[in-house]
Write the structure tokens for this entry.
Amino acid sequence: MAPLALTMGDPAGIGGELTVRAWQTLHSNGPCFLALDDPQRLTGIPIAEIGAPAEAAAIFPNALPVLPVKLGESPHPGRPNKANAGAVIASIERAAALCLSGEASGMVTNPINKAALYDAGFAYPGHTEFLAALTGAHGKQIMMLASPDLRVVPVTVHASLRNSISMLTTEAIVAAARTTAAALHRDFGIVHPRLGIAGLNPHAGEQGALGDEETTIIAPALAMLRAEGIDVSGPWPPDTMFTRTARARYDAAICMYHDQALIPLKTLDMDHGVNVTLGLPIVRTSPDHGTAYDIAGKGIADPSSLIAAIQLAAELAYARG
């Protein structure tokens, strides 16, 4: 299998040290990955600059293979610099291109700071939308957060709570559920995926006493999905659907907005949560945390989520063949 491609993320954040520590953990047994990064900032381990991804496998046990992406200026921990925004974007673009060409089996993205990229022409809400544009999957992509205990998919993502509610539609729920069911089958090897659909309101609306979105928006989506043969249940009261007993009844939870999905997952297992982009023609994962400017450069960043993202990307790539 071709190596995974790991992007640099924000050079002022913890991505570089996480990359180094991930290699220290994985170099003996894999999965093999290469870094699209500036080799000058990756210190403390053997580094080997390479010219093509095919060179990575032979090098990986003894050194971190790096396809160089030069920074504009030397980074300073905790201080994002727009002079380096172009390199951050180039790292993502190169990783996506390697995946599309088959030279990389999947990509893992270190955290970025979107505000720091806007001056370089970055015009997307996040990685997910950017990668959809790069791979021709715009409008088809959705975000899944996955851990050993729970998988969640938010129907609406990077919007205020007020706007998220106004954006919620039957069609959006159906589209998210279809993509999730297909990914669970293709990438996660679940023959008959089961989806738990969250309600929006307390007690799932209490038969309309606490809101009618469950009957006017969510119930029609459930009916459409069942008619297509997709195994769905709900709408579940959001305050009870994430208990241990409830989680055993579905393979992924379709949630109505960002925090409804991410709060339970991060509470259950922040260290091993992985962001997976569904609906792309390539495999893409990322750690479930941000740039962590407050601890950047201190050598205390926990690589667990990045390592989990690398391992999951390898599993998904293998499942795709």
